Design the sequence.
């Protein structure tokens, strides 16, 4: 009897799905250049560095996919980025500001040890949009990188804010204007 119970127990747990992506219904796409940094030739104290994302609900990753419909009508996609200021030859410090200091033109953002960027769906033109400026308050050498807690160096990871039981759409978007270490360096005068 003990052998039969042990066999039933082993059989029951051998069919468990240990793949979190399968459990959480994730899908992955590779779409380059969905997020960009608005580059300026020079930055001065009082300027902003702007980050932009404007992308359609219909994307092509080898085949057309309606990410709005696939995500169950997710009205937001999120990603993160970090702005740091050089303190000395080897030390960088994360720059933080109050959310009220961000210049939010489209989408939304929250700032702490990183900027939590929220692309908001526009039902009229059916695009997700984000355009936010980060204030440059102090002169110095700066660097910008995508993906706080990300394993990717050269891309932005966008994630749909899908309601429960709907697919979560993850977009890996190769980024331009960053170096091989994943940074965009700039100076503020």
Sequence:
């Amino acid at each position: 009897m003990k052998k039969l119970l042990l066999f039933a127990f082993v059989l029951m747990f051998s069919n468990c799905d240990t793949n979190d992506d399968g459990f959480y219904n994730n899908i992955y796409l590779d779409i380059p250049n969905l997020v960009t940094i608005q580059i300026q030739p020079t930055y001065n104290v009082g300027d902003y560095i702007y980050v932009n994302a404007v992308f359609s609900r219909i994307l092509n990753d080898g085949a057309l996919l309606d990410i709005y419909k696939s995500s169950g009508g997710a009205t937001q996609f999120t990603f993160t980025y970090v702005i740091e200021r050089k303190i000395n030859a080897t030390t960088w410090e994360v720059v933080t500001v109050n959310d009220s200091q961000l210049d939010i033109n489209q989408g939304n953002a929250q700032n702490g040890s990183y900027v939590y960027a929220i692309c908001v769906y526009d039902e009229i033109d059916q695009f997700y949009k984000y355009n936010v400026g980060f204030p440059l308050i102090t002169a110095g050498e700066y660097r910008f990188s995508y993906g706080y807690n990300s394993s990717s160096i050269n891309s932005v990871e966008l994630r749909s804010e899908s309601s429960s039981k709907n697919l979560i759409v993850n977009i890996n978007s190769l980024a331009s204007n960053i170096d091989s270490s994943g940074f965009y360096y700039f100076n503020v005068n």
